[in-house]
């Protein structure tokens, strides 16, 4: 397999939480490329397996590689690298370092220069202890990109000063929420605890890329009949046709649908357009010959070279079309019943047989938005999530509707061992803030929130207890009174 294939499979393994397999695949991918995305994926796998030194090495190398490439995606990867540093330092018990890295992630998301001397690491006292407090971290929203009251929820309450959108609002929110965990730990540490010391710098020294041990060459098989003859190397015979399991032969597929069409992308590298044959019928598509990485020896007449796509609904063959690029085959099929959302795109059956299993009937209720409109390149499940009943957790806590891959969430619990995006939601962070506040602080929060119509939030009862909190909409937003 190519480095790209190893990398894609490694990233997918991280997504599926198969961390040991992910590291093995990404090791192979990174032998020929310093892709920062692959480095960050391997860092996450090492982190989950508690290989924290290796995780930190990959994260810092990813930061430098992304900065040196200077591509359109570089800033996003640098933001992610600083956030990943924050998570790793938290796991190491270095909470001051964790907060510094989270703050740097926020500054990058705000569009600030990567090499700016922002002085974050200089917030220390004469003993070298970090002086930023939990309250300081909560109030640190001056440079928040976009959002404001229009963002909804508690995030919009105290956002009187918001910067223009940068496209990294989600990354900013995630780093901002992470600071609550780092500073929350920090406030309970003894004064002489090493976790209070700042030992990091904004731009870490670039680590040396670790080289994999070179494999010894396979022993050569020589012909002893004549020492002057060149050495002959034994070559393994290719596997016989039909010996590769169907699951390994199947192509990676992605799909999205509209009211009129179902589009399926089959990722086949270097498919030959002049040789490819695609036959649309009412409920299936037969195509081939297909290049398969698991069986590169296949020829046009082999069973492995052909596939039958058994569709999840009916199509109009004459209104369907296909196209080929160097990396994928795209099928754009006109639905026989416009407006009906398919519950699944279908399945691939190896071979060009017309006796493939019958296609499932299309669902008559609208499929979830994620399944209906997910763009090509994003992961989708074949089965519609609308068919899955909501389930609660074992403790009987409420389970709310969610599109998370991990299923329904219990928002009353905070799992510090996992930095899942759902648990980094800023509204969830404010809920935790209220939950951990004193009764007096809770009264102040409720009073300021209600009286200001959701535009202000204060935890200081001495400030808001004796006055009415005025409505303070963000700049550019006008507060209106509604007649009953």
UniProtKB/TrEMBL annotation:
Domain CS: 248-346
Protein name, as recorded: SGS domain-containing protein
InterPro entries found in the cross-reference section: CS_dom, HSP20-like_chaperone, SGS_dom, Sgt1-like, TPR-like_helical_dom_sf
Stretches assigned to the SGS domain: 399-484
UniProt biased composition (Basic and acidic residues): 210-219
CDD domains: p23_CS_SGT1_like
Membership in a protein family: Belongs to the SGT1 family.
Transmembrane feature ranges: none
Pfam families recorded: CS, SGS
Molecular function terms from GO: protein-folding chaperone binding
UniProt source species: Apodospora peruviana
Bias type Acidic residues, positions: 220-229
Positions of the UniProt region annotated as Disordered: 196-246, 370-422, 456-484
